[in-house]
Amino acid sequence: MVIHYLGHSSFRIKGQATSVVTDPFDPKSTGLAFPKVSADVLTVSHQHADHNYIEKVEGNPFIVEGPGEYEIKEVRVIGYPTFHDSSSGSERGQNIMFLITIDDISILHCGDLGHKLTDETLKSMDQVDILLIPTGGVFTIDAKVAAQVTSQLDPGIVIPMHYNRKGLDQNIYKELAGVEDFISQIGEKDVQPEDKLTITKSQMPEETQMVVLNG
């Protein structure tokens, strides 16, 4: 399985037979270019323009936008309802986390999660191999809470997303923290960005490792 970071909260996950794209973004809402990409399955965590630019994804994908369990080709997707803020959705509404299982690897995409996970959510969720988690704060959890959620889930690999970076529209996102804050919270040192993550189930580390992807 191969994971590419497309930027912001969007990834392309390519299995042996099926591909998934998460949270495609409108360039006008981010300042980032969205690449030409196709998918069999497309997940949308919530209906904001920096997460739901579905018309840009080619391949006539099956679109998953809500909670529940879905089986599409060789992919299993489970949507877990959460909130976009720490006030039960009163500020920014609902957010859906998606647990995507492909090539026997489970990947949790947190969307714009705004809070720590409840015991109820944790009990209902299978083991997470790879965690894709927002870390920039302001519109989502910040680096400190992201580290706490990482500890709650104990994944093999954690990949940060939705943080400040070069090219992001600073008129909108200037208050977002960079990825360095999360690296510090996790306690990692000298993390070098990679162009992609290529991994099999048997290669999954026993203790959580951080991977930062170029996007």
From TrEMBL:
Gene3D superfamilies noted in UniProt: Ribonuclease Z/Hydroxyacylglutathione hydrolase-like (3.60.15.10)
Matches recorded under InterPro entries: RibonucZ/Hydroxyglut_hydro
TM region positions: none
Protein name in the entry: Lactamase
Species: Candidatus Roizmanbacteria bacterium CG22_combo_CG10-13_8_21_14_all_38_20
